[in-house]
Design goal:
Elements: H1 9-18, H2 38-44, H3 46-50, H4 55-59, H5 68-80, E1 84-88, H6 91-103, E2 109-113, H7 118-127, E3 130-134, E4 138-139, E5 144-145, H8 150-159, E6 163-169, E7 176-177, H9 180-189, E8 194-197, E9 221-225, E10 237-241, H10 248-258, H11 265-301, E11 307-308, E12 321-322, E13 326-330, H12 338-349, E14 355-356, E15 360-364, H13 371-389, H14 417-422, E16 425-429, H15 460-472, E17 486-490
Parallel strand pairs: 2-3, 2-6, 6-8, 8-9
Antiparallel strand pairs: 1-10, 4-5, 7-12, 9-10, 11-13, 13-15, 14-15, 16-17
Helix pairs in contact: 1-11, 5-11, 6-7, 6-10, 8-9, 11-13, 12-13
The chain binds pyridoxal-5'-phosphate.
Pyridoxal-5'-phosphate binds near residues 119 and 173.
């Protein structure tokens, strides 16, 4: 059964439900869209409602005897080479929360890559864990953090025998993969599981030229967003387990702690359909995609003032592999920030980028970008460079002078994230926060890596980074004061 990769149990059951004409006196209350307004049906499609089924007495019977979701999960586990899989509908954010509790209990210690996404820090807060941060490799040329160096992992494993496991991101937002087989081996030598936030990498399993994926590298658990680099609906995520160190029943129960009792089945069906798509055609689709991304890389590299992050950065350790469909550009030499470039591209050529910051632009090529879209991006970046070059010296301000680089933002923890977050707090002006302990995350989005986490000592570099970053166009997601005039600190 697990080999029937051309079957889609959830999608098929949903199609059957949608055409069944069932008269429901249960939920959802819109009753296949009959109660919903015409405008919402026009915008999202009437099918979004007719396919909005429950799991019990929707895609399955009252006692779920057809095991529709379980069958889809078994197919997914097989496709990704794991022993167990769970399909999640609240993104890899939820998957990260569940992952922590599968490994550690409140009060326990975990090793965590400092370049983690904000959902990982949220998981630390909710689970009441004590993080020991693993410092990522700092690429000072690119002002970007890559993976966790093996020596850093070994040092922290040796110094913290109490740690329950290690959590790191791979690929990074910028598409860099560390030496996962070596990192997994190091963790296993200490009897600790390695959990990988693979939000940007569930497609890596389906093409031989992609960097090595987490489960294949010996990681115990991997969490991947099906909606980012694959083709699922937003919110779709997969949790994979292949481990002798994490109990499958605890993994299942921790997933259940977080998943809604009324999951959007359209999202589940989209994971099912995407799994079939990649299991059957992934290699061909990704091969064509790699061709398009490489063509664009070459074209960008020929534009004066633009640098393209390529395989020359690789070092076999924290920068072991590069996912080439993530194309990172350094545009500092154009005399504009990435934020200005992003806005110009949106307003003038209707292009939307995957990330911009004070110095970078990033394009995520996926199987949804065809040759025409690739040509539009190449033309758009050329036009951007021409526009930037035509500006007067006075207009070309670029990255704010004095804005600290990421490697200057130190992490000194005074309290655990939960102690700081749930303790007595006050709000102080950002400028007066130096020497205080943060009681919230402050996260430039994207890439969503909190530069301050609850419990962290705030220093001059953090304050300058945010003050100058905000002037340049930085967007801090999820702060108590979106303008960052004030920041929440421990009282
Ligand atoms: C590294 C990383 N992990 C987790 C997430 C959260 O994923 P999701 O949006 O699927 O909840 C993101 C989102 O950008 C991310 O970049």
């Amino acid at each position: 059964m697990a080999d029937d990769q051309d079957t889609t149990p959830i999608l098929d059951a949903l199609a059957q439900y949608a055409s069944s004409g069932s008269i429901s006196f249960g939920v959802p209350g819109h009753k296949s869209g009959r109660g919903a307004t015409a405008d919402i049906k026009r915008v999202v499609g009437a099918e979004a409602f007719s396919a909005d089924a429950t799991t019990q007495k929707g895609i399955d019977d009252r006692r779920e005897t057809q095991q529709i979701i379980q069958r889809a999960e078994a197919l997914a586990a097989h496709a990704w080479g794991a022993d167990y899989a769970h399909l999640s509908t609240n993104g890899t954010s939820l998957s990260n929360h569940a992952a922590f509790l599968s490994v550690a209990a409140p009060g326990e210690t975990v090793l965590v890559g400092r370049n983690a996404h904000k959902s990982v820090i949220a998981g630390l807060i909710m689970a009441g864990l004590r993080p020991v941060f693993l410092e990522p490799d700092q690429d000072e040329d690119w002002d970007i953090e890559h993976g966790i160096p093996l020596a850093e992992m070994e040092r922290k494993l040796a110094a913290h025998p109490e740690a329950r496991g290690a959590f790191l991101v791979s690929p990074t937002f910028f598409g860099v993969v560390p030496n996962l087989p070596a990192l997994a081996k190091a963790c296993h030598n200490y009897g600790k599981p390695l959990v990988v936030d693979e939000a940007w990498g569930p497609h890596l399993y389906f093409h031989p030229e992609m960097p090595t994926a987490a489960i294949r590298s010996g990681a115990d658990m991997a969490l991947g967003s099906i909606h980012k680099m694959m083709a699922g609906l937003q919110g779709s995520s997969i949790m994979l387990l292949k481990s002798g160190l994490i109990q499958p029943d605890r993994f299942a129960l921790c997933y259940d702690l977080f998943e809604s009792t009324s999951p959007p089945v359209q999202v589940l069906a989209s994971i099912d359909a995407t799994r079939r798509q990649f299991a059957l055609e992934g290699e061909a689709l990704l091969g064509a995609l790699l061709g398009r991304a490489r063509r664009a890389r070459q074209a960008f590299a020929e534009i004066p003032g633009i640098k393209v992050m390529g395989r020359e950065i690789l070092d076999g350790d924290a920068r072991h592999g590069l996912e080439e469909t993530k194309v990172t550009l350094d545009i500092a030499d154009l005399g504009i920030t990435g934020y200005e470039a992003d806005d110009w591209l949106t307003e003038n050529v209707n292009l939307s980028m995957g990330l911009s910051d004070d110095r970078h632009l990033l394009a995520c090529f996926t199987i949804g970008n065809d040759d025409q879209a690739t040509d539009a991006l190449i033309a758009g970046i050329r036009a951007l460079a021409t526009w930037a070059g035509s500006r007067s010296a006075r207009e070309r301000r670029g990255r704010p002078p004095g804005m600290p680089r990421r490697c200057e933002l130190r992490t000194v923890m005074e309290l655990t994230p939960a102690e700081a977050f749930f303790g007595k707090v006050e709000h102080v002006p950002l400028a007066q926060a130096v020497g205080r302990v943060a009681a919230e995350m402050v996260t430039p989005y994207p890439p969503g890596i909190p530069r301050l986490v609850p419990g962290q000592l705030i220093d001059e570099a953090h304050v300058a980074f945010f003050r100058l970053g905000l002037q340049a166009g930085l967007f801090p997601l999820g702060t108590s004061d979106q303008s960052l005039k004030t920041v929440r600190v421990v009282a």
